[in-house]
Amino acid sequence: MQTKKKYILIQLLLLLISSFAISQELPERKKLPIKPQQPMDTLQVSIQDSIKIGTARKRDTIKNDSIQKDSVPEKAPVLLDLVKYKSKDYVRISQRTKKIYLYNEAELYYQDTELKSGIIILDYEKNEVYAGRLKDSAGVYSQAPYFKQGESIVEPDSIRFNFDTEKALIWNSRTEQNGTKIAGELTKKENDSVVFIKNAKFTTSKDLDNPEYYFLARKIKLVPNKKIVSGFTNMYIADVPTPIGIPFAYFPLTDDRASGFIFPTFGENNSRGYFFQNGGYYFAISDYFDLALLGDYYTNGSYAFRGESNYALRYRFRGNLSVRFEALINSQRGFPDYSKSNIYNIRWSHNQDQKANPNSRFSASVNLGSSQYYQASINQLNTPNFLNNTLNSSVSYSKTFPEYPSVNVSLTATHSQNTNTESINLTLPTLQASMERIYPFAKKDGTKKGIIQNINFQYNLRGENRITTTDSLFFKREMFDDAKIGMRHSIPVNTNFKVFDYLSVSIGGNYDEVWTLRTTNRTDAVQDPDDLTAQIDSEKETVNGFDSFRQYNFSASVGTTIYGTFNFGEDKKIQAIRHTLRPSISYSYNPAFDQYYDTYIVDANGGTTEDYTRFEDGLFGSPSRTFASSIGINIANTVEAKMRAKDSTSEKPEKVMLLNSFNFSTNYNIAADSLAWSPVRMTGSTQVFNKKLNVNFGATFDPYAIDNNGTRINKFNIDNGGSLFRLTSANMTLNYSFSSKSLEGKTDNGNIDNTRSGGRDDDLFGKAQDFSDSSSSFGSDDDDDEEKEDVEAYRAKIPWDIRLAYSMTYANNNRQNEISNNSLMFSGNVELTPQWKVGVSSGYDFKNKGFTYTQMRFERDLKSWRINFNWVPFSARASWYFFIGIKASVLSDVKWEKRSEPDRSL
User: For 87, which of 106, 124, 453, 872 could close a Cys bridge (C-beta 3.0–4.6 Å)?
Assistant: First the structure.
């Protein structure tokens, strides 16, 4: 002990010095005698400092002294990374308490942990940190802690956190998990994956201090980015408790798609009883496709199933598939209005990315099913689609072989279905092949001059397997009984050249060869040898086997382009008008192919006969038997104006199209012995009001008169006491679409996504809206901040959009002189305030004097909630739907729906 007194004295002096000075890291000392003097302190307050790995050891231990090393092994460092900290007012390090004190705008960073607060105290011996707020002289707290670990953020009143165990105690915490805001009275953080909260409020409201609603759970377990499991929970609306409560609850929290149950919608139908709709399970199978299995059930025994899938592969393709089946029972067994039926609908959409393969492409657009599907289904998604009277489908694959001469081959299956007549036309499949044009006499450098070098030909092939059936035989064996199979080969040969530098001349011919596997044979009508008064009519039978016919034709045309400009002066608003006239005269020669026609006896007694061809029911028509040598006349017009620019700074005038097209066409058959002139057909189109109003019109003028029976006679109408031409028909359609955005010069995307449910791409028939979908026309719950909403609440501009469609048809073929169709359809939406939006879709039939299908829509944005009300006031689909629910997708099952289904029409 006597020999160690000197060193003990030195240690006591160092401890005394450390109590009055802020410590720094001591540099490693050399093995020299230690002088008992106090070093100068160079630490400045409010500067950034750091604690390095292993500095949690005792500061008062001299590393290289003469004391023998203790036999107890030295404790490994507990801080595994650099700790960075700073504050505004001061940083104080206490060696006695082993703590660092940070005051005012304090910040601390360690690994993936970030802490900001008014006060931070770091105990580097226990590796714990405490953070709290600052309190001013008025008792007001400020600078609440901000704690971030990884992606998890908590904003409490105070927090205590251990770096080793990652456990924490948090008072009045506030955090957000995937759009769900959570406020807890006391939070215990076990580790980075489990959190327990006492008296927790969770909501999707933007304002957590004054939420429109929240769920109060006495105890919850939170697994960040995965789930929330709670005990007894009840709902509060505007801080008022409601009787809506559950003993326990489970809320998934994930940014990725996750499998789970889909909560159904409940209601009542007049003829099918109580029901639930659109309930089922969602399978998040992979990142490339998913599957939703949904079902409906009605208490009278009706039920429905629906499967929907979306799939996508980046840079390759994307699409969706929907299959629906409904077994419908109306009324009850034994009642006179009892009925039972099965309906279905299949929709498939597939689009290939253009980058996938430049030489091959596959696409599909399918909408087929029962003709009465949209009319009989009571699912609200089908309400605006019951007016559809056609279903169309197309699935095609095309392949291009780029080698010279290039060949393009496509295979297509098509489907067209009329829901009124329940007739279905199919092509299963259609094969098309075409070879590019070949110029056999052109030079290799590609320049073509004159009639010889411009001679070209190509080869086209079209083969079909066409089926005509009905809805009752669809997908049954009988639908293939009357299938027609045929193939057409076509080789067009053409050339063109200039005459007098102004006339363009085109000469060509076409060779067709048609193959078929079915022909027709007719037997003569004969008398019954036992009964001379009886007679057997001629019979028509189908002959199976390969057969073919060939035909050809020639044509020539001469055309030119004439320009006429009318100048009014550059100081005028309309500076000039240019009229472009493109007249053309064509000649066509079609020989008669009588060799393909035979004769059969119609009346054996009278010896009456008729001609027929065995190809009369062929897929590509019959051979031409009528010799035709006709001249065609066509006049095309376009009119455009040059106007002074609206922008005064622009020197260039604007070009405005007045008439996109204004065409006349007719032809004269030289070989006809009567009625040689065809009716004159006039068509035209234009766009006005900044191309917002599309106008299409047409008319037919007949130069011949008609008799009292309405039959055309070989006498000109002017010679029969009438005008030069007799107007037989006319039609006009107007389409107008504009909005407040388009008037401001902004882009307006007016398309409505009704096509997913088989409807139109606009809302003239109404909208197919799923109220249970978390999306809203006002936007999601996370769109704009409150400041923007407050500003727009007092805006003077009201967003709106309008779509108009007018159609009129005039008929006078038989001097009826009547308007056969005259109707106007319209739809519009108005956003009265940032929270109120109304819309209507309707129309008026001026001929029948009545409104067409009408749908009224009301939508109210309640920040975290939304209200929808759709009303069809009249027609066979008269009904209304009411919905209120939370917008956020995580709580989309918190909703209430009420509806009135349409009455069944007997």
Answer: 106
